[in-house]
């Protein structure tokens, strides 16, 4: 079954996998009805930091996937009782995109039509038996690397670098989906702009680094305060945005946030300060996030004009 023993490719693979996924145990699923083949692949992959699952048919595969939604890579053999491997790829692709999971098709027949079948149904790669450890490792590594590239691109595109919150661009993307869903289900959506009062003074007095610390700490307070279904984003500078289903209670939600933050001590080893927030809320459901932001911005302007540390709706 094994053509040639590998050199130290596996260590190289594991090193890369550890770097890419920051030592998190990656999950891999092997689907093959041959116990020899399963053992061969399982032994290689589980040597180090990969958590390996095995299945012998499509039913077992789908049940493992149901329980383990974070499987990163699947190796699927073509010849299995019940369902062909390439058909199983088709099924798995209804659940996972290529950006979420890599699939490598495996078969012992050197048949180019089969390769095409696997790729057409959504496999990222294809490998013919018998294969050697080195080729096996390199293909696993390459596919995990590509997956990581997708993941880092996704993070760059959606996340604010300083605070780790969603960025303005992504707020527009998911905000629009939230609005569509609210319209369909007759839900009321609130959008609030939260702005730190006199933030320039904090930067000028305590330095830009301390200013960054205040922004990061406030971001964490916001993230902890709101529900998983709410959107918390940094609009830019010292402005944040929260969008979610709050209805009539939106004023109370944001006023209690305002009070909580005004009592909180932002302290590092050298100093401890308190800050206040001005908040503007828009409760009128619009088609576009941009319009809701515009309405909330008018209310924020009102809060600033009324003397700051105020919520307007
Ligand atoms: P107001 O109460 O009227 O909102 O006044 P303000 O000083 O909070 O608002 P202003 O818009 O004048 O100042 C915001 C400051 O935020 C100016 C800018 O240099 C600073 N800033 C923007 N981005 C960052 C950042 O990423 N880190 C730090 N430390 N400061 C930032």
Automatic annotation (TrEMBL):
The modification 4-aspartylphosphate is found at residue 77. Gene3D superfamilies: 3.30.70.270, 3.40.50.2300. InterPro entries: CheY-like_superfamily, Diguanylate_Cyclase, GGDEF_dom, Nucleotide_cyclase, Rev_trsase/Diguanyl_cyclase, Sig_transdc_resp-reg_receiver. It is an enzyme of class 2 (transferase). It comes from the Bacteria. Residues 187-313 form the GGDEF domain. Coiled coil: none annotated. GO terms for biological process: cell adhesion involved in single-species biofilm formation; negative regulation of bacterial-type flagellum-dependent cell motility; phosphorelay signal transduction system. This is diguanylate cyclase.
């Amino acid at each position: 079954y094994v053509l040639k023993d590998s050199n130290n490719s596996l260590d190289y693979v594991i090193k890369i996998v550890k770097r890419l996924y920051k030592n998190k145990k990656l999950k891999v699923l092997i689907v093959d009805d041959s116990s020899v083949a399963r053992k061969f692949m399982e032994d290689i992959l589980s040597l180090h930091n990969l958590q390996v699952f095995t299945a012998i048919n499509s039913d077992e595969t789908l049940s493992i996937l149901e329980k383990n939604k974070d499987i990163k890579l699947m190796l699927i053999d073509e010849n299995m009782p019940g369902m062909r491997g390439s058909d199983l790829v088709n099924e798995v692709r209804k659940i996972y995109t290529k950006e979420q999971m890599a699939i490598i098709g495996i078969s012992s027949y050197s048949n180019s039509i089969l390769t095409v079948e696997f790729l057409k149904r959504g496999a990222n790669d294809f490998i013919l038996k018998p294969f050697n450890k080195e080729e096996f490792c390199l293909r696993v590594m390459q596919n995990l690397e590509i997956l990581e590239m997708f993941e880092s691109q996704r993070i760059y595109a959606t996340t604010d670098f300083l605070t780790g919150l969603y960025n303005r661009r992504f707020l527009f993307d998911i905000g629009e989906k939230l609005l569509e869903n609210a319209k369909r289900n007759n839900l009321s959506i609130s959008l609030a702009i939260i702005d730190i009062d006199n933030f320039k003074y904090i930067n000028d007095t305590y330095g830009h680094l301390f200013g960054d610390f205040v922004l990061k700490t406030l971001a964490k307070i916001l993230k902890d305060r709101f529900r998983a279904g709410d959107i918390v984003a940094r609009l830019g500078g010292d402005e944040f945005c929260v969008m979610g289903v709050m209805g009539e209670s939106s004023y109370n939600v944001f006023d209690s946030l305002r009070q909580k933050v005004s009592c909180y001590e932002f302290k590092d080893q050298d100093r401890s300060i308190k800050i206040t927030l001005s908040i503007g809320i828009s409760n009128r459901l619009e088609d576009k996030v941009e319009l809701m932001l515009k309405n909330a911005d008018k209310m924020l302007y009102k809060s600033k004009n009324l003397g700051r540390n105020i919520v307007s709706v």
